Amino acid sequence: MRTNLTEYRRLEKEILAGTALEQHKRQRAYKVNLYTTEALSIGVASSDYPGFDIVLTDLDRGNVYIMETKSIGVASSDYPGFDIVLEGMVDGYIQSIAHKPDIRQLIPETEMPTENILYERLKSYFENLDIEAKISKTKEVLGHFEKYPPSHNKNLVLGALEYIVVALRKIIDVKLPKQVEVYDYISDYLNTISSIVSLSPEEFMNKNIFDLESLFRKIELFCFENKLLPKIDENNINLENFLYD
Amino acid sequence: MDFDLSDYSKVVYDTNCIIYYRLNFSISCHRKKIRLTPKEFHIVDRITSQFLNKNYEIHTLRIAFDEIFRKGIATIIEEYLTEKYPNLRKGGFWIAMRHFEIKVTESIQELKNKAWFFILEHSPPPDLLQKIRNFYRSLPNSPAKQRLIDKNKAAYPDDTDLSLIIYSQTIGSPLLTNDRDIYDFKAELKTYSYCTRIISLSTLAHNSFS
């Protein structure tokens, strides 16, 4: 999942980079033949990569994901040194990878707004996340630690978990590409907190939660900078912003 | 009041008194204010002003100061908000708790920069600690002692409270406390010279020093 999120972040950065070339790429999807040498593997893309059919791994680029794959075959003698040719659709982002020297690319034949591809992929991505399940899990952990005696750690962690429930609700409502990043941090936070639910109340009270707090600060900062939620420790804070069902 | 401020130049604060001194924050919700300002804040604020006007030093122990951050603040604000704002439990309670925990923590940390506030690294001798535990054990049964046992699962206060009692006696200064483990037994402690003077917040509610 982490690789997928990284992929989306890179994609978003690429699109937002703003150069003329990138703007041009943003407007198009390309039909290409990808030639590769020393291909390590070719296989069906996993469900973690919605919208992609094929994953191709080679020494230079690592994994390259391709959609609307039409054919895979042995490269002709016109392309000496290459083993495999793969015909399919790639978007502007993959296209930029395809400019590397060992890829011979045909002239684009098909145009397709990349925003649509991106939107469809994100839509599919969020549908696969099952955010409701994550909210349920968060509330379950919250209920677990609520039974613990009062402590500094309890207040920080439970406050963070309540905040995360609200943040997840915002992600469901809005579904913007930038929110993939905060979802990534939230997943890390919940994974980390899951590893300490077995601590006794005394152990929990004395645990150094610097890592958790560091992660939560990233979540909070991201939500704050993207106007999703205020920071909890702001002066004149309004609790209404954090209410949830 | 049974003593004059000019009798001393220092006063020892227990954990709760330090927390109450900085417990004055609020947040908004549905156009209303949720105030974290218990009545004890006003008492400690008033008496601290009087101490400072007389150039008192305010002392506490490292062990007490650390306990404030570990669980002291959390215990007081959870109890206060649960009792005062029960509807908060329906949503946003822990957001409010986190907000207040951070604000109060920052505020208490600022005390370290005050010229009149001292945190002492004082560890009472183990034999003295044991002696005062034995003293508590020897006290006759009473509702106060039973409450002490129920709370601490022992017939004596925890080491932080005992250390504060001993330290205040060591420097010959009064101990300001809101802890019944201490002030319920102040007459006995005084009789056996385990303390210099115990000042309980409850007795200050309607009084002031001269």
List the helices and strands and how they pair.
The complex is a heterodimer of chains A (245) and B (210).
Chain A lengths: L1 H15 L3 H7 L3 E7 L2 E6 L9 E5 L3 E13 L9 E7 L1 H7 L15 H16 L1 H16 L5 H23 L4 H16 L6 H6 L3 H16 L20
Helix pairs in contact in A: 2-3, 5-6, 6-9, 7-9
Chain B lengths: L9 E4 L1 H7 L3 E5 L2 E5 L2 H15 L3 E5 H23 L8 H18 L6 E4 L5 H13 L4 H10 L6 H12 L3 E4 L2 H4 L2 H6 L5 E4 H4 L6
Parallel strand pairs in B: 1-4, 1-6, 4-5, 6-7
Antiparallel strand pairs in B: 2-3
Helix pairs in contact in B: 1-2, 1-3, 3-4, 5-7
What descriptors fit this protein?
heterodimer; A: 245 residues; alpha+beta; 5-stranded antiparallel sheet; 5 strands; elongated; B: 210 residues; alpha/beta; 5-stranded parallel sheet; two-stranded antiparallel sheet; 7 strands; globular
Question: What would you note in describing this structure?
Answer:
The complex is a heterodimer of chains A (245) and B (210). Chain A has 245 residues and is of the alpha+beta class. In chain A, 50% of the residues lie in helices and 16% in strands. Chain A is built from nine helices and five strands; from the N terminus they run ααβββββααααααα. Chain A has a five-stranded antiparallel β-sheet, covered by helices on one side. In chain A, a hairpin with a 3-residue loop joins strand 3 and strand 4. In chain B, a hairpin with a 2-residue loop joins strand 2 and strand 3 (32-36). In chain B, helix 1 (15-21) packs across helix 2, helix 3 runs antiparallel to helix 4 (93-110) and helix 5 packs across helix 7. By secondary structure, chain B is an alpha/beta fold. Chain B contains ten helices and seven strands. Chain B is globular, with a radius of gyration of 18 Å. Chain B has helices spanning 15-21, 39-53, 62-84, 93-110, 126-138, 143-152, 159-170, 180-183, 186-191, 201-204; strands at 10-13, 25-29, 32-36, 57-61, 117-120, 174-177, 197-200. The chains are: A alpha+beta (245), B alpha/beta (210). The A-B interface holds A 142, 149-152, 154-156, 158-163, 205-206, 232-233, 236-240, 242-245 and B 27-30, 34, 69-71, 73-75, 77-79, 91-103, 105.
